[in-house]
């Protein structure tokens, strides 16, 4: 199988507490991978290690068949926690700031605005956007440098049903454009509708990883993994 990213026995220790405990993920190229687990399970910590915000205590990360290095960040886009927006700027202006920093052409701004369906926002400031529009602008920022891998941490948090549906369709469209997505969530039904593969993590441990199959009772597996690892975890 063609893996864009692999982690092997990945660990993160915070002051003697194991937030991530020997996690080995296998992310297939041009797919959506759902990293599922209760709040505090260690999902965000794993994603922060993949994007270089945190350094692993032990274990390894491979990107495109080689050991991860900071140079790989040019192929990784991420939206972790709140979108990094200038609220007093328009969508276009927010993207313009990032293109200048990255040395990208202005044409890329219109391309990503089109992808996330924000071409008609005009002079409206980002501070007046709905939560769903802010999330889409955050994804547009993450897409500017044409990443191979897009990491989204709980992207539907706080969205209304229409915003969730729009974001779901957007995420599902990415693999066809050569973008692999890792999506974290604590909502099983959400991941089931978006992901091709799933990893279930509880208390820092990966208890299940497989392709999503309509005949698999994911809820039962999820509850079993959480129970086997002592509940929600504390991270």
From TrEMBL:
Native species: Sellimonas intestinalis
A Pfam family annotated for this UniProt entry: ABC_tran
Protein name: Lantibiotic protection ABC transporter ATP-binding subunit
Domain ABC transporter: 5-228
Classification lineage: Bacteria, Bacillati, Bacillota, Clostridia, Lachnospirales
InterPro entries: AAA+_ATPase, ABC_Gallidermin_ATP-bd, ABC_transporter-like_ATP-bd, ABC_transporter-like_CS, P-loop_NTPase
Family statement drawn from the similarity comment of this UniProt entry: Belongs to the ABC transporter superfamily.
SUPFAM superfamilies, per database record: P-loop containing nucleoside triphosphate hydrolases (SSF52540)
UniProt keyword annotations, A-Z: ATP-binding, Nucleotide-binding, Transport
Molecular-function annotations in GO: ATP binding; ATP hydrolysis activity
